Amino acid sequence: MKSAGILRTNPDFRRYWISSTLSTLGSQLSLLAFPLLVLSIGGGAAQAGTVATCSMVTRTLLRLPAGHLADRLDRRMIMVGTDLVRLVALASIPLASGLAELGQAHLLCVAIVEGAATALFSPAATIAVRDVVPEKDLTDALSRSQTAMASSSLIGPFLGGWLFTVDPILPFAVDAASYGVSAVLLLRMGIRPSQGVADSERDNRLTAGLRWLTHQRALLAALLFAAGINIVSAAAQTTMVVSLRQSGAGGTAIGAVMACAGIGGLLGAAAAPWLIKRNPAGRLFLLIGTVWALGLAVFSGTTHPWAIGPVLVVVVFFSPPAGIVVGRAILVLAPRDLLGRVSTATGLLMAGLASAGPILAGSFVDSMGGSRTWLVLAGAAAVVTVLSSVPLLRETSLDATGDSDRDSDSDSDSDSAKNRGESDSVAPAERPAEEPHPEQAAPHGTKSVGLIPAPPAPRRNTGGT
């Protein structure tokens, strides 16, 4: 089934996709407007950076507890509740501005509250998505979500900047409204009840997701690839901006070059189902890593924006399929009662490692120059590719089957669950490393791998890497 068909025939996925697209676009508007607003009310660069840092730290600290709650509580109520919390938090900015009470402390509190709510939303959405889209449609559904997120990441900053020039408060009002629309759509989304797990079989430890991941050799190899490319990507963004600036490029030229990453991601998300269908995971990762290594090596030889831009489109074009493969594997392989904690453990791994990229890039550029830094990053991409993709060349557990109908409807799921009774009684930690958990997952929106800014976790049934 094609992704367009999914939107036509699956009303729950359609509600999710619309809510995800609108709220992701709203978040991209305020992402740019937050530091601009801090500066406009008299704050300095340090204060503007503090707002973003506090939001990121809050999300990181709450990742594992959020996954634990999502595995135990009603995930739709978590999603709706956190959307309403974010609506109130963002709407308080226009309200405080109208009362002439808006200050830096208020913006800092909003950033922390929104970060906490987003951390709670993500794993709940991951669990919900597997109930809505059949496994056979998972790749196309994730591709559709990736396309929407890439589009929002491409046009959001430009639109946010324009709205800010019209009225500095307008981007926040639009973002708050997007959360309200999302909450309404999520309330109308039908989610099948979870199949209970006996208390004696449930792993209630906060680190259960991390423990489960240690037994998944193929998935760990895929995560190694995605995390490695994310580090290189984060470092490449800093290196790109600094190198272009040092060569005399202006802000407009630099912005145009970085927009090429969004264009590449948008095209890559649209082509992802075709690439995934024709390439096993190992070969796909080998292709993606090779393109990244060659593209970064090309950057070492030029600082001309109009030469870098087209190469960047090609490099990022191959990134979304990797994110889709990893996200699908998590949803299909992770035990249902651990899915929230597995998704947050994966996100913690990806975000934690990627955060070191800009710092490393800045140090390398200062000590050895931009050209050599590009070569170092190219070498790092090559090493990560070899270490992760070669072990997967003969591995098939991460590949999309495309013809699976195990989750095509709730009745078949219920019947198969009964027939699997004894198998389901095996504790997650005791299941063989390469054996998929009998309760298969459905789609979820995963974060892109590469120079595309990773959007907030998709609104409706997803949870990502």
3D architecture notes:
The chain is mostly helical. It is built from 18 helices and no strands. Helix 4 (75-98) packs antiparallel against helix 5 (104-129) and helix 10 packs parallel to helix 12. The chain starts with a helix and ends in a 41-residue tail after the last helix.
Summary of the model, kept short:
The chain is mostly helical.
Describe this protein with a few key phrases.
465 residues; mainly alpha; globular; disordered C terminus
SSE blueprint and pairings:
Layout: H1 3-9, H2 11-40, H3 45-70, H4 75-98, H5 104-129, H6 138-166, H7 170-187, H8 208-213, H9 217-246, H10 251-278, H11 281-299, H12 305-317, H13 320-333, H14 339-354, H15 356-368, H16 370-389, H17 410-419, H18 421-424
How much is the average pLDDT?
A: 77
Overall strand count: 0
Estimated structural class? mainly alpha
* Largest sheet data: none
The ordered H/E elements are HHHHHHHHHHHHHHHHHH
Shape verdict: globular
- Radius of gyration from CA coordinates: 22 Å
Compute the separation of the termini in Å: 24 Å
The residue ranges in which pLDDT falls below 50 over 5 or more consecutive positions are 401-446, 452-465
- Please give the share of residues in helix: over 70%
Number of helices: 18
Strand content: under 5%
